[in-house]
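Exercise 7b. C-alpha cells:
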C-alpha cells in the first residue's frame, strides 16, 4: 500500500467528502473545514484534486496553515493527535479529526477552533 504522503489528494478528497455527506453534511462544509485549516479556497481545493498532487504536497503548498490548528486534540485511528511527532502526519490526522467531527454532526463553530485571545470571528 502506498505511503499516505504519496497518495493523490484527488483520491483522498472524495473519501473525506463521502464520509461527511453520508452523515448529512455538505461538500461546501467539507471545503469550509479544509479552507479553515489550509487557506485554500474551494476552487483551489477542487483544482488540487484534479491536478493529482500528492497529499504531502497538498499540505506543504497550503497558502496559509491556520495556527489555531494546534487546538485540535483527540484520537484518530487510535492515535492521540497532539502526540504525533511528525508535523505533516499530525496535520493529516488533524484534518481527519475535523472531518470526523463534521460527520458526527458537531456544529461548525465548534469544529473551527480559534484562540479567544486572537479576537477572530472566523466561521
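Sequence design result:
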Amino acid at each position: 500500500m502506498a505511503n499516505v504522503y504519496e497518495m493523490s489528494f484527488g483520491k483522498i478528497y472524495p473519501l473525506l467528502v463521502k464520509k461527511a455527506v453520508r452523515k448529512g453534511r455538505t461538500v461546501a462544509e467539507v471545503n469550509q473545514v479544509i479552507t479553515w485549516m489550509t487557506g485554500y479556497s474551494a476552487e483551489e481545493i477542487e483544482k488540487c484534486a484534479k491536478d493529482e498532487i500528492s497529499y504531502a504536497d497538498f499540505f506543504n503548498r497550503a497558502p496559509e496553515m491556520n495556527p489555531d490548528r494546534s487546538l485540535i486534540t483527540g484520537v484518530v485511528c487510535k492515535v492521540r493527535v497532539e502526540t504525533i511527532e511528525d508535523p505533516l502526519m499530525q496535520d493529516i490526522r488533524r484534518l481527519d479529526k475535523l472531518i470526523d467531527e463534521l460527520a458526527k454532526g458537531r456544529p461548525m463553530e465548534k469544529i473551527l477552533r480559534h484562540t479567544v485571545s486572537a479576537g477572530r470571528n472566523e466561521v
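Instructor comment: The first helix runs from residue 9 to 21. Residues 5 and 57 are 8 Å apart (CA to CA).
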